[in-house]
Design brief:
The strands form two sheets. A five-stranded parallel beta sheet has the order 2-1-3-4-5. Helix 5 crosses helix 8 (153-164). The protein contains twelve helices and ten strands. 40% of the residues lie in helices and 16% in strands. The model has no long low-confidence stretch (mean pLDDT 93). It has helices at 13-21, 34-40, 57-62, 81-86, 99-115, 117-125, 131-135, 153-164, 178-184, 192-198, 218-223, 241-247; strands at 4-7, 25-28, 46-49, 68-71, 90-92, 145-149, 168-172, 187-188, 201-204, 229-232. By secondary structure, the chain is of the alpha/beta class.
Length: 248
Amino acid sequence: MKKKVLVKEKLAPEGIAYLEEQGFQVDVGTDWDEAELLRRIPEYHALIVRSATKVTAEVLRAGTNLQVVGRAGVGVDNIDVKEATRRGIIVVNAPQSNVLSAAEHTIAMILACARNLAQAHADLKAGRWEKGKWGRNAVEVRGKTLGIIGLGRIGFLVAEDARGLGMNVIAYDPYVPAERFHELGLERADHPDRIYREADFITVHLPKNPETIGFISDEEFAKMKDGVRVVNVARGGIIDEEAWARAI
């Protein structure tokens, strides 16, 4: 009897074909609501999700045959990992899946912030050509200081690319030893306050967990330089959005 895999969110056809080649029966339930998922999950041995599906304790309890939950991406904050562990269900992710895209997107956001591209684009779509308005406070990134909070795979790639643009890079990550910073040729901040004081641009690459929710709030924004550009390409909630709005 074939093991059954439920693909709950959009997955490349090549991925589904690969699973079938390995002998699995693959069903796609991208249009299932939560009630349908709860009703049918007992049939499946494996569940594949992205970030939209919430794999709650209720879903895991209903999945009486579940052996593994696969996250087609990096973060697993939409999966109740503690409940899965308690039930002996393995949770796996794909940590390398989008790191290059995320790093390149970060650099694109830095450049867009530096040149006020989003604001200028909105004006142009509204029929206004105000080159001087957005050009006056635009900046070049060469020679500016980029502060990176979270030096995992994505943070490191951002650091490499930023140095290629001529930026000075400092990074904070308490879980990366000083020796590793030395190997990578990066300047290490012992405390995020240094980044807040010195950086012209700040990028955030932290996982979302109880330790990092609200990591940057009113107190941290108050320590930053005037005119700093802050880019969050991690999960929402790591930066307190209301505090961010007040800081702007």
